[in-house]
Amino acid sequence: MRTLSPGRGTRLAGAVLAAAALTATAVPAAVAAPDSADRTPAYLNARLPVEKRVADLLGRMTLAEKVGQMTQAERGAIDADQAQITNLALGSVLSGGGSTPASNTPEAWADMIDGYQSRALATRLHIPLLYGIDSVHGDNNLVGATIFPHNVGLGATRDPQLVGQVEHITATETRATGPQWVFAPCVCVTRDERWGRTYESFGEDPKLVQQMETAIDGFQGTSTKDLDDPDHVLATAKHYAGDGDTTFGTSTSGTYTIDQGVTITDWQHFAQTDLAPYVTAVRQHDVGSIMPSFSSVQWTDRPGSTPVKMSANKELLTDVLKQKIGFDGFLISDWEAIHQLPGDYATQVRTAVNAGMDMFMEPNSAPQFEQALTAEVQAGRVSMARINDAVSRILKAKFELGLFEHPYTDRSNMGTIGSAQHRAVARQAVSESQVLLKNSNNALPLKASQKIYVAGVNANDLGNQAGGWTVTWQGQSGNTSFPGTTILQGIQQVAKNVTYSADASAPTAGADVGVVVIGETPYAEGVGDVGNGHTLNISDADRANIDKVCGAIKTCVVLDVAGRPQIVTDELGKMDAFVMSWLPGSEGAGVADVLFGKKAFTGKLPVTWPRSEAQEPINVGDRDYDPLFPYGYGLTTRR
Q1: Across the chain, which distance is largest between two alpha carbons, in Å?
Q2: I need a labelling partner for 524 at 20 to 30 A (CA). Which of 3, 275, 303, 475 fits?
Q3: Angle of CA points 396, 397, 398, to nearest 5°
Q4: Which residues, other chains included, contact 367 with Cβ-Cβ below 8 Å and sequence gap of 6+?
Q5: Is the pLDDT confidence value at 2 over 70?
Q6: pTM
């Protein structure tokens, strides 16, 4: 998953956002006859095995057409000149975070993507386009989609069946608007909560991550034949491998401190912690694509080892992943990831292709990539065997997705987007994700009859509640970007006597219970790294709210809306109850469900909670393990 890097928003700002008003639902007649001398080519025969169709089509393709299939451009770079799709024979287009049609509606998405698809079908062999998007907690680029808790909250549920259901809904809403491919799930194992992507991980224990890989089945279905259904998409396990285990201070990407850094490790630890989820993704869930990480690996058990970027690591991409583990899908590079490799652009392209990369996310330089790769093949520095292997893997996915038979958007599920049924599942995920960390004197559950005083900006801010990767790459504070229910609104739906004061300036007299909602504001990727303008410490405003409300009202409950644990050690004694709410998404009423006992607290910590920022990295199994709350901790209540 992931697609964006610093500056991507500004690069897309000037793009023309014109949606093609195309609503065709059948393959043009020309698709039935790509070559006048061959009226029924084998690759168009849906009754033939995929392997035979791939071999037949590959045998008809020129080098230029093969290189085109290996190329992915960002919609902002091709929208104003869509003939590029045809002229470059592009195999794929993506939307990065916040890259949407001018009218961010389901219909506009489908029209836009169908317009691009018509350009792909205008090529000589009529090979359909594969469209990718970051649906990392719902179809989160689309306004009106169901926005689920981020993965760290789903990990807290310890409910693999629910996670599969969440991603099936995400797949249904995503494919109904056009994209057939998602850059999700992140199966990284987060080992340092200073990482700005902590919330994208299911947790710090690889066993927990492996249990939650039912997400892949939710996206893809449980057999290959499910992929061409209108409620499934191709999944991407990311970021292979070790991105959650990089060493703080090793990142060389801009001002990042840990994201895209170096995983300094021995083989045993790497295999047991960082690699294990990919073995499960491939062998148990048959994931269709994998995205190599921006990060590097440096071995501590190999004398003289130096950091090697994953995009250049032939040992791990080809020898281990494809050959030893048996991955038969395709590898998609991250956003301009190969630009971080040593050497000139031709060297970067050659290195990554020969390492095993199959498709290249070159958002703004697709023509240059195709030119460079073609030259490398013609010069003999990249073999045709490597090209044929990459293209075969990509075509296999397109055949399995049924794109040759149904290239245009099946809009039959469009009416389910953001439906009450889908939001009910999201609400369940929210309630199951809540982790009760303290509950003195049975402060929780609350009673609807109590006079409740609510304080804190995060009590009534959908943007903060959803976090990054929501409508835009970084997400944004406020209640105007997408529909949903805030935590405050959820409380008000149950209790009738509620006072709200964002800064706790309203009088507290007469209140039975104070509820203080603290937490973070949105961020994504390395922008959220601690040391890059962020800290695990709670804000001065949050501390002041806790001090005032908990000091004035007899019973005081604190909720933390954040993508990772925050340092509350000095404040914990002032609270009667403390709840980790994570980033719940659009359904804040799910928080109220457990606060008032409609549902029991059952969530367990998917990561260790540190006493101080200086304790990071801290993980279960460490020597001298002394956290504020251990991994797996979570109190329960009765309904």
Answers
A1: 87
A2: 275
A3: 95
A4: 84, 88
A5: no
A6: 0.94
